[in-house]
Every structure is written in structure tokens, then in C-alpha cells.
TrEMBL record:
Residues making up the signal peptide according to the UniProt record: 1-26
Family from the record: Belongs to the DEFL family.
UniProt protein name: Uncharacterized protein
PANTHER family per record: DEFENSIN-LIKE PROTEIN 156, DEFENSIN-LIKE PROTEIN 184-RELATED
Organism the protein comes from: Nicotiana attenuata (Coyote tobacco)
Family matches, as InterPro entries: DEFL
């Protein structure tokens, strides 16, 4: 009898966990160049957060070695 009760409780627990699991939808990420002329990390982060509630970062422009641009990465709506 105890085995039957334990098996039933285990089965109900598995069903409860399976029903509680929901599909996770990943948010889309967007990016925009805030300043193509140069990048000061503190200013870039501040502007990005204020405008888009995102994360600003300095990335290579690719055109000139050592030149960086301010890129803002944020959640798209």
C-alpha cells in the first residue's frame, strides 16, 4: 500500500512539474551606433542607458586601427 501511495505522489509531482514548465521566449537584441566619431566608455554607457535602457560599449570601427565607435545594444520591442 505504501508503494502505491509513493508511486502516486511521485507521478503527481512529475505532472505538476511538467505543467509548471513554460516556454521561454528570448528577447530580440538590437544595436545602434550612437557616436561614429569616437568613444568614451563612461559617456557611451550613460547615453545608451538613458536613451534605450541598454548597454553601451566601445567597438572597433573597422575603418581605422585604434578608432572606436559607441555602440548601444538593447532589447527590441
Amino acid at each position: 500500500m505504501a508503494k502505491l501511495v509513493n508511486s502516486a505522489l511521485c507521478f503527481l509531482l512529475i505532472i505538476a512539474v511538467a505543467l509548471a514548465i513554460t516556454q521561454v521566449n528570448a528577447q530580440k537584441r538590437c544595436s545602434v551606433v550612437l557616436n561614429p566619431e569616437g568613444c568614451v566608455l563612461f559617456d557611451c554607457k550613460k547615453e545608451c542607458f538613458q536613451k534605450y535602457n541598454g548597454n553601451g560599449l566601445c567597438s572597433s570601427s573597422g575603418a581605422t586601427i585604434g578608432q572606436y565607435i559607441c555602440t548601444c545594444v538593447y532589447n527590441c520591442t
